[in-house]
Write a structure and sequence with these properties.
Structural class: mainly alpha
Number of strands: 0
Helix content: 55-70%
Number of helices: 5
Strand content: under 5%
Order of helices and strands: HHHHH
Length: about 110
């Protein structure tokens, strides 16, 4: 699941849709699971320099989009559909996801650079 954070460059063609899709995958995952901080830190340690650059480039947009999905799923629906996301976020329990995103952000921004 974490690899999708570095599978594209947010500044490339289609980057905004790829960002939306990556955020959607993350939100969907966090809605029913936790990401272990040690696992995330180990994943970051294993990134190549190019992947670390992509994470630094991509993560702010992914985080912002993930927060937007949690805050207003209906408002993000059109963009997500355009990105090929079919998950019905409006009918999901997303109340715990924002706190989980804080944890993910802390680990990724503290170990990636």
């Amino acid at each position: 699941m974490l690899d999708q954070l570095v599978d594209f460059g947010a500044d490339t063609a289609g980057g905004s849709l790829k960002t939306a899709k990556a955020a959607a995958v993350l939100v969907e995952y966090l809605s029913c699971s936790d990401l272990d901080a040690d696992v995330m830190a180990d994943w970051c340690t294993g990134l190549t320099d190019d992947q670390k650059e992509l994470l630094d480039l991509n993560w702010p947009g992914i985080l912002s989009e993930a927060e937007a999905i949690c805050g207003d799923p209906a408002g993000e629906a059109d963009e997500l559909i355009t990105a090929g996301v079919t998950t019905d976020f409006e009918n999901m329990a997303l109340t715990e996801v924002p706190d989980k995103l804080v944890t993910v952000n802390t680990v990724l921004t503290g170990t990636a650079g």
